[in-house]
Design a protein that fits this description.
Elements (H helix, E strand, L loop, with lengths): L2 H7 L8 H15 L16 H7 L9 H11 L21 H13 L10 H18 L7 E5 L1 H17 L3 H4 L5 E6 L5 H9 L6 E4 L1 E2 L2 E2 L1 H13 L3 E8 L11 H12 L8 E4 L20 H14 L7 E5 H4 L7 E5 L39 H35 L4 E3 L9 E5 L12 H6 L5 H25 L5 E8 L5 E7 L8 H21 L5
Helix pairs in contact: 2-4, 5-14, 6-14, 7-9, 10-11, 14-17, 16-17
The structure holds pyridoxal-5'-phosphate.
The site of pyridoxal-5'-phosphate has 13 residues, from α7.
C-alpha cells in the first residue's frame, strides 16, 4: 500500500464509512470490559513514572490500528468502574450510554463551540441546555444566559472574573487597581483558591468565613464584608457553596443575597454572588413533585429541607452546575448559568460593541469565553436532561438516598461506627470508626467529645490514622482484587480547637446499587477493620 493510502485508512471518508468507528470501538470495548472485572479493570500496578517518561520516544514509523488499539486497551488496567455498585469512592458518576455516544459524536464531527460557524449542533445544544437549566433554577429565561466550561473550577473562575469586573469596573483593561477580596466558607471547594490565583486576586485575599455544621456563618460574613470596606479594599465575588463535596452543607444563599443588597447600598460598585451548586443542583428537580411521598417520613422531611435551601439558587447572580458529577455525563461537562446575560459583556475582549450571545451575527460565545476552542460540551448534558427529565433525576437520587439510608441505619446500630451525617439526605455517608466502642465510659459519644476537645489531642490523631488505615487497606485491596471501594476525607470537620477530623465516606453513584450491596459494603468495612486491628492495632 502506498503510504498515503495507509494514512487514509486511519480516517473516515466523507461518506460511506459509518461502520468504521463503531467496529473499532466495539473491538476495543470488548477487550476492556469483561465479566471478571470488579470495581477495577484488571489490577492497578504501581508504576515507575519517571522511567516511563525517560523511555518513551516519538515513534518513527507508522503503526496500525490493531496494534495501537491493543496497546491502548492495556492502558486501561487499573481504571475504576464507576457503574459498579461497590465502587463508592467519590462523586464520580457512571455516564449514561447516550451521553457517551454524544461525546463520541462530538469527536466525530469535531465541532468547536467557539461560534456556530464551527459547530451548529454544539450551538443549539448549548443554548437549549442552558435554557433548560435556567428554567430549572427559576431564572427569567428572557434575560438569563450561560455557557459550558471546563468543570466546576471553570464556573468558579467565571464567577470570580465577573465579580472582579463589577467590583473594579474596567479592570479588564487597566488591570486590578485596588485590593479585592473573595468570600467563601471554610468548607468551600479549593477551586476557589485556583480562581484567586489565576485571576491575580491572590490567595491571601480570600476571606474564609467559618462554618457551623458545614454552613457558612452569615454574621461573620457580614463582619468581614464591613471590615473590607472600612479597610478601603473592594468586595469581589461572594461564593455560596450549595452542597459541599464531602458533607453536603448548603450555605444560606437568600440571606447572603439580602446581605449583599444591604451592603451594596453603601458602595458605588456592584457585588457578584456566585453559587457553587456543582454537587447540589439536581435536587432542584424535586420541586413541586410528589415522587418522595412514599418515602419514610423522616427522609421526606430531610429531602424537603434540602429542596427548600437549594431553591434559593434563583437568587444567585450565577450558578455552577456539574453534569460530570451529579448529572451522570462524562467529563468535561459543566454549565455556568447567569441570571443576566448582559453580565457577559464584562468579559468581552474586543472594544467594539460586540453582539453578545445571540444578537445579530449568530452565536459567538468565543468573544467572551475563557477558552478559545471549546468542544461540544453541552450535548452530553442536553442528552441526559432529555433522556432522564426531572422524573429520571429524582428516581435515581431517591434510589441512591434509599440505599445510603439503609447503610446509615445499619451503621447507627453498630457499636463502633459513628455516623456523622445521619440527618442529611445527600447520598454520601460520612462515618468514623472507633477501635472498640463509639461511646466513652460515661456512655456519651466519643465523637461529641472529640468535637469539643474533651478528649486528648493524641486520641483524635490516633482515631484519624486508624480510619485512614482502614480506608487505605480497602483501597489497596480493591486495586488488586476489584473489591468494595470507599475513600476518606482528611478534613471532614475541625474541632473547636482546630483539630482536624478524618472521616470515611461512601459515595454511591451507580444506578445498579441495591440494599444488598450496602450489606456487602459494611461486611467489607468490618473485614478491613479486623485486618487493621490485628496487623496495626490502635496504639502504633
Ligand atoms: C468538585 C467540586 C468543584 C470543582 O469542580 P470540577 O468539575 O472538578 O472542576 C467545585 N466545587 C465543589 C463544591 C465541588 O465538589
Amino acid at each position: 500500500m502506498k503510504e498515503i493510502e495507509l494514512m487514509r485508512s486511519f480516517f473516515t471518508r466523507p461518506a460511506g464509512d459509518e461502520d468504521k468507528i463503531v467496529l473499532l470501538l466495539n473491538d476495543l470495548l470488548k477487550k476492556i470490559d469483561s465479566k471478571e472485572n470488579g470495581t477495577i479493570i484488571g489490577k492497578k500496578e504501581t508504576l515507575d513514572y519517571e522511567k516511563l517518561m525517560r523511555e518513551t520516544k516519538f515513534p518513527h514509523g507508522m503503526g496500525n490500528e490493531a496494534d495501537v488499539g491493543d496497546f491502548i486497551t492495556e492502558l486501561y488496567g487499573g481504571v475504576n468502574i464507576w457503574c459498579h455498585p461497590l465502587m463508592q469512592a467519590n462523586v464520580v458518576p457512571p455516564a449514561t450510554a447516550l451521553s457517551i455516544v454524544a461525546a463520541a459524536l462530538g469527536a466525530r464531527y469535531n465541532e468547536n463551540s467557539i461560534s456556530d460557524d464551527y459547530g451548529m449542533s454544539a450551538a443549539r445544544s448549548e443554548i437549549m441546555a442552558i435554557a433548560m437549566l435556567a428554567d430549572l433554577i427559576g431564572y427569567d429565561t428572557t434575560k438569563a444566559g450561560g455557557i459550558f466550561t471546563f468543570g466546576g473550577t471553570g464556573c468558579n473562575l467565571y464567577g470570580a472574573r465577573i465579580g472582579i469586573e463589577k467590583a473594579d469596573p474596567n479592570a479588564k483593561n487597566t488591570g486590578i487597581r485596588d485590593r479585592i477580596h473573595f468570600f467563601c466558607s471554610d468548607v468551600a471547594h479549593y477551586s476557589i483558591r485556583s480562581a484567586a490565583l489565576w485571576t491575580g486576586v491572590g490567595l491571601d485575599n480570600i476571606k474564609t468565613i467559618p462554618s457551623c455544621d458545614n454552613v457558612m456563618d452569615i454574621h461573620l460574613l457580614e463582619e468581614e464584608m464591613e471590615r473590607t470596606i472600612s479597610e478601603g479594599a473592594r468586595i469581589g465575588t461572594i461564593f455560596a457553596t450549595m452542597g459541599t463535596t464531602d458533607a453536603f452543607g448548603i450555605d444560606p444563599l437568600k440571606k447572603i443575597v439580602e446581605l449583599r443588597d444591604r451592603i451594596q447600598k453603601k458602595i458605588d460598585y456592584r457585588i457578584h454572588v456566585h453559587a457553587d451548586a456543582v454537587i447540589g443542583w439536581p435536587y432542584l428537580t424535586f420541586r413541586g413533585d410528589t415522587r418522595i411521598d412514599h418515602l419514610p417520613h423522616m427522609l421526606q422531611e430531610e429531602i424537603r429541607e434540602i429542596l427548600s435551601s437549594i431553591s434559593d439558587l434563583r437568587y444567585a447572580d450565577s450558578v455552577g452546575i456539574d453534569f460530570h458529577k451529579t448529572g451522570w455525563a462524562p467529563y468535561l461537562c459543566s454549565a455556568f448559568v447567569i441570571k443576566n446575560r448582559e453580565d457577559f459583556t464584562l468579559l468581552q475582549k474586543q472594544k467594539k460593541d460586540m453582539p453578545y450571545l445571540f444578537h445579530g451575527e449568530g452565536y459567538q460565545p468565543g468573544t467572551f469565553t475563557l477558552e478559545s476552542s471549546r468542544p461540544n460540551y453541552a450535548q452530553k448534558a442536553l442528552a441526559n436532561m432529555m433522556l432522564m427529565g426531572k422524573q429520571g433525576y429524582e428516581t435515581l437520587i431517591v434510589h441512591l438516598i434509599t440505599a445510603a439510608d439503609h447503610l446509615r441505619e445499619m451503621m447507627d446500630n453498630c457499636s463502633d461506627i459513628e455516623l456523622l451525617n445521619r440527618h442529611n439526605p445527600a447520598f454520601v455517608t460520612d462515618f468514623r470508626i472507633y477501635p472498640h466502642t463509639k461511646f466513652d465510659t460515661d456512655g456519651n459519644p466519643l465523637f461529641q467529645k472529640e468535637m469539643c476537645d474533651e478528649t486528648e489531642e493524641e486520641f483524635t490523631e490516633k482515631v484519624n490514622s486508624y480510619n485512614q488505615r482502614i480506608a487505605q487497606y480497602m483501597i489497596a485491596r480493591a486495586q488488586k482484587e476489584g473489591t468494595a471501594m470507599i475513600s476518606y476525607t482528611d478534613n471532614y470537620k475541625t474541632t473547636r480547637n482546630s483539630r482536624t477530623i478524618v472521616a470515611l465516606k461512601s459515595y454511591p453513584m451507580s444506578p445498579f446499587i441495591e440494599k444488598e450491596h450496602m450489606d456487602e459494603m459494611l461486611r467489607q468495612i468490618y473485614g478491613a477493620k479486623e485486618w487493621v486491628d490485628s496487623n496495626c492495632g490502635f496504639e502504633t
